[in-house]
Each structure stands twice: as structure tokens, then as C-alpha cells.
Amino acid sequence: MRLQLALNVKDLDAAVDFYSKMFGAPANKRKPGYANFAIENPPLKLVLFELPNAPERLNHLGVEVFEDEDVSAATERLEAAGMEHSIEDETTCCYAKANKVWVQEPDGARWEWYRVLEDSETFGPPASHETPPTS
């Protein structure tokens, strides 16, 4: 398991250059308007969306897991707590197909628990990373 931090950046090239140097690691995936880093130490998935006019720099937060059972356990935990959430099974986003569950914290930050199933050559639905979850 590793935490995910997804940021909206004004200039993807400048951001990739900065974070490559800061973490001493190259981008794991680089596509038009998108990059991610799978950093081992500290365990972090850093995701960059090139959205120069985004009103906020924080896009969303997440927890990447490596088994579907962990996504199911997170879903069950949210349901048991009576928290509003949305489930996305085999959805394509961010150049990957994944199973995920979304929840929004009281101040509006969006969190996802997700497992990547496979890479994709397409980003996914337009603006899918900008839409807040609904239950």
C-alpha cells in the first residue's frame, strides 16, 4: 500500500523536472498532460495533471493497494460507517484501468482507494479526474 498525492500543475515539464530531482526518481508514466511517479522511499504515488487554470493545486488524494480485496474492505468500511461513497469497477482513468471507491472528506478533499488492473493507452472519460464522487 502507498499513499497517492494528485496535483494540478501549470507546467507539466517543469513539474516533472522538479519532482524527478526532488525524489531522485524518473517519472513512471508520462503521457500528454499527465505524469506519475511510483516512489519507493517514501512509498508515494505522485500524480501530476497539467491543468494550468485549475482553481486549486490539490486534485485529490488516494491510497493505492495491490489486491482487489483491499478495495472491497475499504468499501465495506465506508458503508458500515454510513459514509457517502461511489464505486468505480474496471474504470479507465489516468491511462490505467482500475477498481476504486471514492469518498469526500468534510472540507471537500476527495480520496480514492484503488487498485490498478492494467495500463491503458487512453486517459479515460473527459475530465474524469475533476468530477467529485457521488453515492
Give a written overview of the molecule.
With 135 residues, the protein is of the alpha+beta class. It has a single domain (2-130), classed as Roll (2,3-Dihydroxybiphenyl 1,2-Dioxygenase, domain 1), CATH 3.10.180. The chain is 19% helix and 43% strand. It is built from 2 helices and 8 strands, in the order E-H-E-E-E-E-H-E-E-E. It has helices at 12-23, 68-80, and strands at 2-9, 29-31, 34-39, 44-50, 58-64, 86-93, 96-104, 110-119. It has an 8-stranded mixed β-sheet. Strand 6 (86-93) and strand 7 (96-104) form a beta hairpin. It is globular. The two termini are 25 Å apart. Mean pLDDT is 91; it is low at 128-135.
Q: What is the annotated CATH architecture?
A: Roll
Which value, in Å, is the CA radius of gyration? 15 Å
Overall structural class, as computed from helix and strand content, comes to: alpha+beta
Mean pLDDT: 91
Assembly type of the shown chains? Answer: single chain
As for the CATH topology, it is: 2,3-Dihydroxybiphenyl 1,2-Dioxygenase, domain 1
| Portion of residues within helices | 10-25%
User: What's the level 1 CATH class?
Assistant: Alpha Beta
Number of helices: 2
CATH superfamily: 2,3-Dihydroxybiphenyl 1,2-Dioxygenase, domain 1
Strand content: 35-45%
| End-to-end CA span | 25 Å
Main traits of this protein?
single chain; 135 residues; alpha+beta; 2,3-Dihydroxybiphenyl 1,2-Dioxygenase, domain 1; eight-stranded mixed sheet; 2 helices; globular; disordered C terminus
